[in-house]
Amino acid sequence: MEKTICITGGAGFIGSHVVREFVKKYPHYRIINIDALTYAGNLENLRDIEQEPNYSFVKADITDAAHILSIFQEYQPDGVIHLAAESHVDRSITNPTAFVMTNVIGTVNLLNAAKEIWKDNYEGKRFHHVSTDEVFGALGDTGLFTEDTKYDPHSPYSASKASSDHFVRAYHDTYGLPIVLTNCSNNYGPNHFPEKLIPLCIHNILNEKPLPIYGDGKYTRDWLFVIDHAKAIDLVYHQGKNGDSYNVGGFNEWQNIDLVKELCRQMDEKLGREEGTSAKLIAFVKDRPGHDLRYAIDARKINQELGYQPSVTFEQGLSITIDWFLNNEEWLNNVTSGDYQGYYEKQYKG
Ligand code: NAD
Ligand code: TYD
């Protein structure tokens, strides 16, 4: 194999698409997926590629520094693409410490392990940290986040991601570790865990349950199809400038209420329900504390420097996403009943 890349969080939503992209596109790379299989990690996401000769899975928790170092010593990765994280804002509000442990301490453990095995010989090496636009805080009605926007995180989730970004840059500035960062907008697509807005609403529409909209529903997010995020990570990993960060987005802002109405419209059409049926399920509920009003990415740098462009429009991506959920009801049932842990034990017993 020409190169070995450790991808952390590869069993999660975005990580599984990144693993698939790399395993398929680079048969001459050895891809090691390192994941703790928390509630959000699911090896079913990788069923179609798990037999590929250039793919391996290692169950490990990035908060375990000694285990991470031993894995890096064994596999000697040339590159690390770091996606493992606690990723849900609402969970960060109820249990912030878990976010500090995985997102901050876990990231520092990976940086230490990379620094240790690369031993200051950084030729051909790269640590790619995958982050979020939420580190920049909240926008008002106008403006966009650029790479130079000052960090101003508000939720425990975004504070932990901001901290991890700072550590990644600090290891570059202090030890010369070769790094790149990507800060991406909200993702959606196949395998999205149904705690986030879009898959939660798809699940609830299927089960004719209320669609909970926080506050007045006027909060705005900038949405990117997950496979387009995976392609951006591939591009930045290979061509991004050492030490730089790149904002990833598709200039695709939606107010939550409009997005959910579009989702309802497409679902009614696909399910053969009368128009307006699903929208009747919309229910305004208590707001999220500290809810950021608006996120919007200025994605000109990645476009102009690396030629990046998303491949699908939002309407197309949403349609692909709904079709995936309709065709994968068993996946949805498993993750919503907790059965996917059982899948792992069966698959890897002994
Ligand atoms: P996810 O919650 O779906 O998956 C996270 C994965 O990390 C899971 O497989 C989980 O098992 C694993 N993990 C969690 N804690 C771990 C630990 N201690 N050790 C090892 N593995 C652990 O998250 P996601 O939505 O796929 O996000 C992936 C990355 O992308 C995160 O770093 C997130 O901050 C970032 N990001 C997400 C979005 C988004 O819209 N979801 C947008 C921008 C950036
Ligand atoms: P979410 O998918 O949790 O992503 P993030 O908080 O990282 O942006 O939420 C997207 C938006 O949808 C956000 O403004 C919060 C809102 N939201 C709801 O209105 N209801 C819900 O049940 C959820 C989960 C989110």
Structure description:
This protein has 350 residues and is of the alpha/beta class. The chain has a domain at 3-192 and 225-251 and 295-311: NAD(P)-binding Rossmann-like Domain (Rossmann fold), CATH 3.40.50.720. It has twelve helices and twelve strands. The protein has helices at 13-25, 65-75, 89-94, 96-118, 156-175, 197-206, 226-239, 256-271, 300-306, 314-327, 329-337, 340-347; strands at 3-8, 29-35, 55-59, 79-82, 126-132, 179-184, 186-188, 211-214, 220-225, 245-248, 253-255, 282-285. Helix 2 (65-75) packs parallel to helix 4, helix 6 (197-206) packs parallel to helix 8 and helix 8 (256-271) packs across helix 10.
Topology summary:
Elements: E1 3-8, H1 13-25, E2 29-35, E3 55-59, H2 65-75, E4 79-82, H3 89-94, H4 96-118, E5 126-132, H5 156-175, E6 179-184, E7 186-188, H6 197-206, E8 211-214, E9 220-225, H7 226-239, E10 245-248, E11 253-255, H8 256-271, E12 282-285, H9 300-306, H10 314-327, H11 329-337, H12 340-347
Parallel strand pairs: 1-2, 1-4, 2-3, 4-5, 5-6, 6-10, 7-9, 8-12
Antiparallel strand pairs: 9-11
